[in-house]
Amino acid sequence: MEQQETAILIASIVLVVIIILLIALFSIFQKRKNSLLLQQKEAEKKFETAIAETQIEIREETLRNISWELHDNIGQLLTLAKIQVNIAQDDPGKLEEVTETITKSLTELRSLSKLINPDALKSLSLTEAITLEIERFNRLQFIKATITSNEEVEILDDKVEIIIFRILQEFFTNTIKHSKASTLDVNVNYDEEKIIIHAKDDGVGFDSTDMTTRQGIGLSNMQNRGKLIDANVALTSEKRKGTAITLTYHYKKESSATLDDEVD
Length: 264
What we know:
This protein is of the alpha+beta class. It contains 8 helices and 5 strands; from the N terminus they run ααααβαββααββα. Strands 1-2-3-5-4 form a 5-stranded mixed β-sheet. It has a domain at 126-264: Heat Shock Protein 90, CATH 3.30.565. The radius of gyration is 29 Å and the shape is elongated. The chain has helices at residues 2-90, 95-116, 120-123, 126-139, 158-178, 211-216, 219-228, 255-263, and strands at residues 144-149, 183-190, 194-201, 232-238, 242-250.
């Protein structure tokens, strides 16, 4: 009888211990789950904020571009047309020149209208958006710029395109403002697994080991943007030999849904 009572007591104790362990494990699991959910929400909020900030920066840069182009390009063309009209009043044979100048002005305005649309990037592929930038540099004679690309084999998520475009836009701005370069060459290459974008100028360059210069051109900012979409951003430079950027992004087959969920 005593043995039975002892066995029941031991079994009860074991059962209680098991229940306590299960409760403790469940509590730990819940805490970890809640912690992971909190981290996920913080990451989603960070990503959403970064996307919003990037879109604002692109629009601010676009407005600056529009201002420059209206003043430096279209404004000058219209001024020329006005002068030609005055000359044509005494020499009707000059009307053809007026027509050519006005036609060119209209062509430039159509090109500019693509930038005015705040959602222009959404309606364009990444390569098309980069090409618009390259064409603008050439129109304004900022620099002699070229772009080469193979056929796109993967449609990128809108948010990924925004991040990549802004990274390149920052590099282009540094090239135009600080590099004293005469040429800028961009290559966009798609394959089955990734996209690699390489851009290089022939400017003054800098010592790539100089952290002050690296910070000045915003390399860490470009790399941090790249990390948002798991893209690798590498910048190389050498004094008097120019600066180059290489961006590599591996496609994520489920990235579109994931990113949409994060931003929505």
